[in-house]
Write a structure and sequence with these properties.
CATH class of the largest domain: Alpha Beta
Oligomer: single chain
Low-confidence stretches: none
Largest sheet: 6 strands, parallel
Order of helices and strands: EHEEHEEEHEHEHEHEHEHEHEHEHHH
CATH superfamily of the largest domain: Glycogen Phosphorylase B
Number of domains: 2
CATH topology of the largest domain: Rossmann fold
Strand content: 5-15%
Structural class: alpha/beta
Length: about 375
């Protein structure tokens, strides 16, 4: 019988009050690992005490909280790893950045490499860190996790990393979601949604192609003024063009910006939307597509590889540079919504956090 493995995890990205993107991935993978694996011993490394919704410490699940916080990944964490008595079989990071130096085998998780093509969309400090720290993590890694086959292929293409050194641990969703009419009414009232609506849900940033959504909606509205457009999510960066487009097209009364929404509000909005719109120019995965399908809500999305991988043939896939295709798809779903609701929930349920965590435990067990 194999001895238990000793696995370290950098959980800082999960240890946030508000989790988006990689923070959600990190938190959900960590939560499911604790539920699934009582055999191996996990050491959770943090620069702040764990949030209340983190798994409770138990035998084989240990929290290590230490500083200094500044440059924690570059200084504090490596120093801790080199001086601690406990030897680790792996040090796993659910984000791009592994400890800058490590005496143990490191495994970073790469979510996407889109920043390499859109460097102008980041501050100099952020893009320098993304490029150089990610490259360093890849260079020193024992193995690499990617969130999709698309990202795996990109790692192979851009960095010439052999595919057998990369495993896919996809994003997932919580499938135990319940929507009730009272909460739904409350959510619609809060955001002043008074008509059927098309929904964009996600951070407001350039790769999401939101100005095109607004223009396509304007063209839809010329023939059919039955719908509002709801843009739900917090401001990311370079979002001024989004608000400017609404102003130029005189859509201030018809486009609703919710800003940040709670988890509960998110599911209510998905459940009632005529369709969810995701014409992204770039994605590493596409969690909003899964969340939409779980609610049985039709999806219109880009025909880019990661979204095709997740949606397969269960939605309308469009060219993200073709505004007319998006407008046409909106009309198609509005006029024949039931046709586009087939098999959506079953498709979404292929991707659960439990399944992703299982794949991770299987990797550790097989390679430890």
């Amino acid at each position: 019988m194999k001895k238990p493995l000793h696995i370290g995890i950098d959980a800082n990205e999960a240890n946030q009050d508000i989790r988006v993107g990689v923070g959600q991935y990190a938190y959900n993978i960590i939560r499911e690992l604790e539920k699934l694996d009582y055999k191996n011993h996990y050491y959770i490394y943090l620069k702040n005490p764990p949030k209340k919704d983190f798994p409770k410490q138990r035998e084989n699940w240990t929290y290590l909280v230490f500083g200094p916080q500044k440059l924690w990944t570059k200084i504090a964490l490596p120093l801790k790893l080199f001086t601690q008595k406990q030897k680790l079989d792996f040090f796993y990071t659910p984000v791009h950045y592994s400890p800058h130096f490590s005496p143990f085998k490191t495994i970073p998780t790469i979510h996407d490499l889109g920043y390499l093509d859109t460097q102008e969309q980041f501050t100099k400090k952020d893009i320098h860190q993304l490029i150089h720290w990610t490259k360093h993590s890849l260079d020193i890694s024992h193995h690499i996790m990617a969130v999709s086959n698309f990202t795996k292929n990109e790692l192979n293409r851009i960095y010439q990393i052999p595919k057998d050194k990369i495993s896919v641990i996809p994003n997932g969703i919580d499938t135990n979601i319940k929507v009730n009419k009272k909460t739904l009414r409350k959510t619609l009232k809060k955001f002043k949604i008074e008509k059927p609506y098309f929904l964009y849900l996600g951070t407001l940033k350039p790769n999401k192609n939101i100005p095109m959504i607004i223009k396509a909606y304007k063209d839809f509205q010329k023939a059919d003024d039955s719908h509002q457009l709801v843009i739900a999510g917090k401001k990311g960066w370079l979002f001024d063009e989004i608000f400017q487009t609404v102003k130029e097209l005189k859509l201030q009364k018809d486009v609703i910006f919710t800003d940040y929404i709670s988890e509960e509000e998110k599911w209510q909005l998905y459940s009632k939307a005529t369709a969810s719109l995701l014409p992204s120019l770039y994605e590493g995965f596409g969690i909003p597509a899964l969340e939409t399908m779980l609610m049985g809500t039709p999806i219109i999305a880009s025909n880019i590889p990661p979204l095709k991988e997740v949606i397969e043939d269960k939605g309308i896939l469009i060219d993200p540079t073709n505004q007319k295709q998006l407008t046409k798809a909106m009309h198609d779903i509005k006029n024949n919504r039931k046709k586009y609701q087939k098999d959506l929930i079953a498709q979404a349920k292929k991707y659960t956090w439990k399944n992703s965590a299982k794949k991770l435990v299987e990797f550790f067990s097989k390679n430890g």
